[in-house]
Specification:
Elements: E1 24-28, H1 37-47, E2 52-56, E3 72-74, H2 79-83, E4 88-91, H3 95-103, E5 108-110, H4 117-126, E6 130-132, H5 140-151, H6 154-167, H7 169-182
Parallel strand pairs: 1-2, 1-4, 2-3, 4-5, 5-6
Length: 184
């Protein structure tokens, strides 16, 4: 693993984050529909009183989540500017959001939904870079407790970040692949 590309599409408008001293948590649903809106719903129910919450729903209709309170909820927002301020990320364990968070040293609370996400969650926990909540046991209270534990995993997330940086990142990997492809 060399880490993700940190490129994001330009936002349609500036992201207006709640301005107070609560820690910031980014919650990301899968960009490929997996019906993982329960993660966002549990996050809104369990986190928004103690945290500033930003939810990107992608394939989940934001209206299906009800009243977000002061949380920012949108289908798509560029993650990198939010991650640069985030204290933790809650996600399904997709490689994109997980690697992007860890590449910036942000600890992750993974609620694996399927596919390789159980393995991704195991790697996050083994690296000391975050926590895991079982999909079957997901609740607002369990998620809030796991996010609090994940926040203490910043040193592990920092080690993953350093590992990605030591490889030279995705740009170095792309350059190496281009060099191989160009050789006879």
């Amino acid at each position: 693993m060399v880490g993700p590309s940190l490129w994001d599409p330009a936002p349609d408008a500036a992201v207006d984050l709640p301005e107070d001293d609560r820690p910031l948590v980014l919650v990301g649903c899968s960009s490929e529909f997996q019906d993982d809106g329960a993660i966002a719903a549990a996050a809104l129910a369990g986190l928004r009183d103690r945290y500033r919450v930003v939810v990107t729903t992608a394939g989940v209709d934001p209206a299906s989540l009800g009243d977000p309170g002061d949380a920012v909820v949108a289908r798509f927002l560029p993650h990198v500017p939010i991650l640069r301020q985030a204290d933790a990320v809650v996600c399904h364990g997709g490689m994109g959001i997980t690697q992007k968070a860890l590449a910036l040293g942000v600890p992750v609370c993974v609620v694996p939904w399927g596919r390789d996400q159980l393995e991704v969650a195991a790697h996050v926990v083994e690296a000391g870079a975050g926590t895991r909540v079982s999909r079957r046991r997901l609740s607002a209270a369990r998620l809030a407790a796991a996010v609090e534990r994940a926040r203490a995993c910043r040193p592990g997330a920092g080690r993953v970040r350093a590992g990605f940086e030591a490889t030279g990142g995705s740009a170095t990997a792309a350059t190496a692949l281009e060099s191989i492809a160009a050789s006879p």
